[in-house]
Write a structure and sequence with these properties.
The chain is mainly alpha-helical. It contains 17 helices and six strands. The strands form three sheets. A two-stranded antiparallel sheet has the order 1-2. A two-stranded parallel ribbon has the order 3-5. The protein is globular and about 55 Å long. The N and C termini lie far apart (83 Å).
Length: 414
């Protein structure tokens, strides 16, 4: 069940995050099946630890985290989009994204094989938290234009807000209806899941699969409304796949141009991947082997890159579903990979009619949840790190104030 649920979640997420990366959205699907397939071979059942000599039981203390769901993420989409914007006049966007994934894979393998994962411990988590939150804001506001049917919106947050409000009379009615309708349904299904999900598994499953539900609903509406029209009522995605992408070697000149640029996506992917892994390691009482995680991240991105994929990393929402389903074996990756492949080969013609506004709404809704989690993390960090410092500084401030008063008292008599 966990494998099928993750596969269902990956379809709208893969399409949405490829849209953020500014590459053809079908490449989001191409990016989603290899990570699950690789986990079958690099993952272990709970209670086992992978070594160079095989597997041995260590009571679940060290293992490749099989709860962790790896695939396209919003952060990887945005960082990839920045590199695509720099090089799109020279190379195809999909080729640029694949080259970035290749270099992320190389860096991951180098760090993993050399056992240098401890270097990430020196990166300040509060700074990373604020960075990811700012990234999420940029991504979310970048989708507002697509949500209401506006083109050529600015790239900065405040400029987007001003531009969208100024062009309020030009909002496209049908597109806005699709976009805001998607947001409302996603919001309601999320609230239903939070309120009754723990009592009824079916409700929890429906809530977890809310993105695919709205995707099916509005794709069907789009097909029924637009199938006989020459001029579509709203913009559609026009997903075009003919099976998985054929493996293709990378252009050496392109690799040399993205090598330095890919460092930022690698660091972000590694930190996000390890953070998710450690969070669920603490929750489920096991220790994460950083070296093994880097090897997995490297191999996954390396293989993925030859099939037209964007960089991938660990995702909190999908990992949470895996954890709640109590997954015990990496074999659930086979179900996930099979579902994605089934979609690519048989269901993708239906995705041709998927409204772009629905994708924008899925992105905005997911990032709203993401920002809520980050806000909680920021408040916790402030309480843990800043409040004690303030308490300890009070005596010092008091002594400074007292000294200043004494000096002011003494000064007139001098």
């Amino acid at each position: 069940m966990a494998g099928l649920t993750i596969g269902v979640m990956l379809i709208p997420q893969g399409l949405s995050y490829a849209k953020i990366a500014t590459i053809p959205i079908e490449h989001g699907l191409y990016s989603s099946w290899w990570p699950a397939a690789v986990a079958v071979f690099l993952g272990t059942s709970k209670g086992m630890c992978p070594t160079s000599f095989g597997l041995y039981d260590v009571g679940g203390l060290i293992r490749l985290i099989i709860d962790l769901s790896t695939g396209p993420t919003s952060l990887m989409g945005l960082l990839t989009a920045e590199i695509v914007a720099d090089l799109k006049n020279e190379y195809a966007p999909a080729d640029i994204a694949a080259a970035v994934a290749f270099m992320v894979g190389i860096y991951g393998l180098v760090i993993g094989l050399l056992g240098l994962g401890f270097l990430l411990d020196y990166i300040l988590i509060p700074i990373l938290t604020f960075f990811i939150s700012a990234t999420a804001l940029t991504i979310g506001f970048g989708q507002v234009g697509g949500l209401v049917g506006l083109d050529n919106t600015p790239s900065t947050v405040f400029a987007i807000i001003g531009d969208v409000l100024r062009r309020l009379p030009k909002w496209d009615g049908p597109t806005s209806g699709i976009g805001f309708g998607t947001v409302v349904i996603l919001y309601l299904l999320e609230k239903v899941g939070k309120k009754w999900g723990k009592k009824h598994f079916v409700i929890q499953y429906i809530s977890s699969s809310r993105a695919i539900i709205v995707l099916i609903i509005f794709t069907l509406i789009s097909y029924l409304v637009n199938k006989d029209r020459d001029d579509f009522l709203w913009a559609i995605s026009k997903v075009d796949t003919n099976g998985i992408a054929q493996p293709k070697a990378h252009d050496n000149s392109l690799i040399s141009k993205v090598a330095a640029r890919a460092i930022a996506p690698f660091v972000a992917a590694a930190l996000e991947h390890q953070a998710v892994a450690k969070a669920f390691g603490r929750k489920n009482h096991y220790t994460v082997d950083q070296t093994q995680e880097f090897n997995y991240l490297g191999v996954t991105n390396l293989i993925n890159s030859f099939f037209g994929a964007m960089p991938v990393g660990g995702a909190m929402s999908r990992t949470a579903v895996n954890s709640e389903c109590g997954v015990r074996s990496p074999l659930n990756g086979l179900i996930t990979a099979a579902w994605i492949l089934l979609t690519i080969y048989f269901f993708s013609p239906a995705l041709y009619w998927l409204p772009k506004a629905t994708l924008s709404a899925i992105i905005v809704s997911s990032l709203t949840i993401h920002l809520g989690r980050r806000q909680t993390q920021v408040l916790i960090l402030i309480r843990i790190r800043l409040w004690p410092s303030f308490i300890y500084s009070v005596p010092s401030l008091s002594s400074i104030s007292t000294t200043e008063c004494q000096l002011q008292t003494i000064s007139p008599s001098m």
